[in-house]
Design goal:
With 429 residues, the protein is an all-alpha fold. The chain has a domain of 174 residues. Helix content is 75%, strand content 0%. It has 21 helices and no strands. Helix 3 packs parallel to helix 8, helix 10 runs antiparallel to helix 11 and helix 12 packs across helix 20. The longest helix has 33 residues. It is globular, with a radius of gyration of 22 Å.
């Protein structure tokens, strides 16, 4: 019953935003597709879920933009290093697929997923952003991140067995919940960053009690996922914010709200103690996983780094094909026997060679440059949500996933540059 209710609720919200041409819906279409995938999967109608998603996405595209792209707009898009990086990686995949050939079934599956699931969303995002030419876009998109992130959190807690996650082996969580434990923690981090920055924004004082609820749910998801990488990335992101954002007096803000904060923490502890999510079992699991970082040389992720280094050192010469364009998609699996590298930089360099290094030089400096510029501007905290989510998502790629699993990092990054340029033109940043 709850699955149907969430689907109906999501449909009502989406149709409302489509009618109003509200870019809040973009957060659902681009970032939080699990909102419909999980309920449809629970009901046994996964294929209908994809049709539902495409229907919503196309309807909003037709309502929000004229689809007319001028030469000036094309030049503007190509000046974006994020888009240049995406064009480069797409070109490399085409070269490996049609020029060199794919050497494994996993490579064929990866290329299929990229061109069917990922590239169309890139194109869709670029087309939709063509119509996002006013400052309302920024407020609407931030609203969407919070609303749809909260809705996805509710779906996870209400329609799956996420609350009893401690009773499952880590390897079984994806099958039980329909979503990986890492993704659960990452979503919790997204929601925490968004609600935390709005909490610090003086314009959102009247919503402060609601923001406490959001932070409460985000903490529950972070604990439920028991994933170390996203937690470390979240702490690093918050540190990045504190170090470079000196215009915000955090001590003053927290001291004013100290009583509410203490009460909220107390409620969280009481709530968690009522369920397995807060049992000693899951706390012990999380602490053991964190303590393993002390012996990182025994971790299988570290061993992958050593194997990759030895492969390049023993098998790759400066003038070889692998040096210039890498081992190709799923090359990590083909050459080393591991499905993927679980590290953004390592996978790009290993599978795309020197061309992958160019990709990294286009991508990484760009996201940090624009994020840093946002932090140094005298602007409300809500405008820092996308920059910090980009930093956070980049941090998570250092510990898990593959190129397609990191798609939200690319989507956030495109929007980051667009928001900055839009803000400069409208003089709101």
């Amino acid at each position: 019953m709850l699955n149907y209710l969430f689907l109906i609720l999501n449909l009502i919200i989406c149709l409302k935003y489509i009618y109003k041409k509200d870019y809040a819906i973009l957060a659902y279409i681009i970032l939080y597709q699990e909102i419909h995938l999980i309920p449809f999967n629970n009901l046994g109608y996964q294929s209908i879920g994809y049709v539902y998603y495409i229907f919503i996405a196309v309807l909003f595209l037709l309502s929000a933009t004229s689809l007319e792209i001028s030469k000036k707009r094309i030049r503007y898009l190509l000046s974006n290093n994020i888009i240049r990086a995406i064009i480069l990686i797409t070109t490399l995949l085409l070269i490996h697929t049609f020029g060199i050939g794919l050497y494994s079934k996993n490579a064929e599956i990866f290329v299929f997923r990229y061109f069917v699931q990922m590239l169309p969303v890139f194109i869709y995002l670029i087309l939709v952003l063509e119509g996002a030419k006013n400052e309302k876009f920024i407020n609407q998109f931030i609203k969407g991140i919070l609303l749809y992130g909260f809705l996805l959190a509710l779906i996870l807690l209400a329609t799956t067995d996420a609350i009893n996650i401690a009773s499952y082996k880590r390897g079984d969580i994806r099958q039980v919940l329909g979503i990986s434990p890492i993704a659960i923690t990452i979503i919790g981090g997204d929601l925490f960053i968004t609600s935390f920055l709005l909490f610090l924004d003086s314009k959102y004082k009247k919503y402060i009690n609601i923001l406490y609820i959001f932070m409460f749910i985000s903490v529950a998801l972070i604990i439920a996922g028991t994933s170390r990488g996203p937690l470390l990335s979240l702490l690093a992101t918050l540190s990045f914010y504190i170090i470079f954002r000196r215009k915000t007096n955090l001590f003053h803000i927290f001291s004013k709200n100290s009583v509410k904060i203490v009460i909220t923490i107390f409620i969280i502890i009481i709530f968690l103690s009522m369920y397995n999510i807060g049992s000693l079992e899951i706390v012990e699991v999380y602490l053991k996983r964190i303590n393993k970082l002390d012996n990182y040389e025994n971790m299988w992720r570290y061993k992958r780094y050593i194997l990759a280094y030895n492969f390049f050192n023993n098998n790759v010469s400066v003038f070889s094909r692998i040096f210039f364009i890498g081992t190709g998609p799923a090359g990590f699996d083909l050459k080393l026997g591991y499905q993927y590298a679980h590290n953004f930089i390592l996978e790009i360099v290993f599978e795309y060679g020197f061309a992958g290094v160019i990709f990294l030089f286009l991508f990484i400096p760009t996201i940090f440059k624009y994020s840093y510029r946002f932090l140094k501007e005298n602007i409300p905290e809500k405008f820092l949500i996308v920059p910090l989510l980009v930093i956070y998502r980049f941090g998570t790629t250092m510990f898990s996933g593959d190129l397609i699993a990191w798609r939200n990092l690319f989507f956030y990054s495109i929007i980051l540059v667009h928001i900055y340029m839009l803000g400069k033109r409208k003089k709101i940043i």
